[in-house]
Design goal:
alpha+beta; conserved putative lor/sdh protein from methanococcus maripaludis s2 fold; Elongation Factor Tu (Ef-tu), domain 3; OB fold (Dihydrolipoamide Acetyltransferase, E2P); four-stranded antiparallel β-sheet; 23 strands; 24% helix; 39% strand
């Protein structure tokens, strides 16, 4: 019985020794585990944040011209798409009725003028007649003269001219149709003063000012990006879209822009110099916040990972500005950081550069 008891004690002791040696071995393996990583030194950078918008090309002079007199449209002097100089005739409204009215009023003016002058001469030189008759004759003469001048203005308005240099974009009434005062005849678009108009969310009202540089490009062709100043910043908020308007003048020498074209616009809404900036792929979220890993030294002098709690600021694309927790001059672990825990041993390797040779 005693021999069996001694045997059990020996077996238990041997199992305990084996178990303890296994745990120690696992701890040693964890302590000696090394992760190959790449690093970079944190240097001060300028951090910029941009807002991407879709704007529309508009013209300072985009108007619909209306008729000032009634009559049938007799002819157009230009076709759609023609560039028309300021003051050049565009169309003619039939003026035969007005010409007859002009002739009738001219006869009445001549008659009224002759009567007025005759009564005035008799009254002043021969004291014949009453002064009131002279006054009435003068009034009649002036009234008929004013009526004649009004008809002459209408006659001039039967020829509709370009108020500015522009392109005839659309005919809203064709030859042979009747025009009436206020009826829209055609649409003119100025060829010089083109601009891009976009709406910026109201929450950025303090971030955009007149004169700020904006990037503008069309059809997603960033190679032709224009860098232009903002020429106008609206002072009111659109109640429906909750945006305010900005305008960017386009270069006059470029003729490729069309009214109502969509334009890609990028406006800077934030900038800070000498910032700590980290790629978002090197920032890891944990229960208590966000961390990055930097290079530290263990008591034995070997390189280990140091888990750093950080306060992040604004971000743009894949760049994040660090408000606190990481300083300029520290060595940030980049490639390989996703495999790390605090105090894990690391081996810093140089970044591999693969050069691809192309044969012509």
């Amino acid at each position: 019985m005693q021999s069996k008891l001694k045997l059990l004690v020996l077996l238990f002791a041997s199992v305990t020794v084996v178990s303890c040696s296994g745990d120690e071995q696992a701890e040693q393996e964890d302590a000696t585990k090394v992760v190959n990583v790449e690093t970079r030194i944190i240097e001060p950078q300028t951090f910029e944040q941009y807002l991407k918008l879709v704007g529309t090309v508009e013209s300072e002079n985009d108007v619909q011209i209306s008729a000032e007199v009634s009559g049938q449209i007799e002819q157009y002097y230009v076709d759609k798409g023609d560039v028309i100089a300021k003051g050049a005739p565009i169309l003619k409204i039939d003026d035969s009725r007005l010409q007859r009215e002009q002739e009738r009023l001219q006869a009445q003016v001549e008659q009224a003028q002759e009567r007025y002058e005759r009564l005035k001469q008799l009254f002043e030189q021969d004291s014949i007649g009453a002064e009131i008759d002279v006054i009435n004759a003068r009034t009649t003469y002036k009234e008929r003269q004013s009526a004649l001048e009004a008809v002459e203005v209408d006659l001039r308005n039967t020829t509709v001219r370009a108020p500015f240099t522009a392109t005839l974009d659309e005919k809203l009434l064709e030859t042979g149709e009747m025009a009436s005062p206020g009826a829209t005849l055609f649409r003119l678009i100025g060829t010089k003063n083109l601009k891009v108009v976009a709406g910026i969310p109201s929450r950025f009202s303090d971030a955009v000012s007149k004169g700020d540089r904006a990037q503008v490009w069309f059809d997603f062709n960033t190679a032709d990006t224009l860098r232009l100043p903002i020429s106008y910043v609206g002072q009111s908020i659109n109640a429906d879209a909750r945006t305010f308007k900005v305008e960017i003048d386009l270069p006059r020498e470029t003729r490729n822009f069309k009214i109502d074209m969509n334009a890609n616009v990028k406006v800077r809404i934030f900038k800070r110099d000498s910032s700590v900036v980290v790629g978002e792929e090197y920032i890891y979220q944990k229960e208590k916040g966000n961390v990055v890993y930097t290079v530290a030294r263990s008591d034995s002098g070997t390189s280990v990972a140091s888990e750093r709690w950080i306060q992040i600021g604004p971000s743009y694309e894949n760049r994040v500005m660090i408000e606190s927790g990481l300083n300029i001059g520290e060595e940030l672990i980049t490639v390989g950081s996703s495999f790390l825990q605090d105090s894990m041993h690391i081996n810093i390797v140089e970044k591999q550069k693969n050069e691809i040779a192309q044969k012509n």
